[in-house]
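#help-structures

NK: newbie question. if I give both the sequence and a SMILES, will the prediction place the ligand too? trying with zinc ion
OV: yes, paste both and it writes out the complex. here, I ran yours:
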Amino acid sequence: MTAMLLDALLPTRCPLCGHPGPVPCRACRKTVPPVRWVGAPSGVTTLTAVLAYEGPTRTLLAALKYRGATAVVQWLAVIMAEAVGAVAPLPVWITWAPTSRVRRTVRGFDQAELLAREVGVHLQLPVEASLNRQGSQHQTGRSRSQRLHPGHMFQPVPHLPHHGPVLVVDDVCTTGATISAAAWALRSAGVSVVHALVAARTP
Ligand SMILES: [Zn+2]
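OV: that's the protein plus ligand as structure tokens.
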């Protein structure tokens, strides 16, 4: 049985206070900080972020990454889909910035893909894999310069399924380098409008 499946079958607990029930619980939802300001990184048409990446948000996203909390994905996807409703021109499809192969193998899933697929359900848009990640260097093991100038971090797939306005989903945006690299890869394949939607942004 996979970790994800096991996770879905177990009774849920709030990752912030440990209380059994909704993830996060109603009381803790009020403690998760909303994001205050969002600037779009290079190549990105608009960036929508829902939460400030600090305090309880870090705990929530750590639960998502390291314990496979599918209930966290479901809650995040609802608030992310609500937040992105007003962007123009409206996206007609959704993709994600894939995590490295090493991380995907270790966790058994790609949290960006899980978020993208769940947001797609709420927005009723097709969700397609469109990017391949180059190499397997971990963001944390790279210099600031490398992170800010990622070069060819992503390659578009050979036959992109759509070329209309796209929404790229990721879990966290810190320097903006990853989402920017994803946007430029999609632009290189003929997509001219690249919106980004992330659960959390560094304040
Ligand atoms: Zn709680």
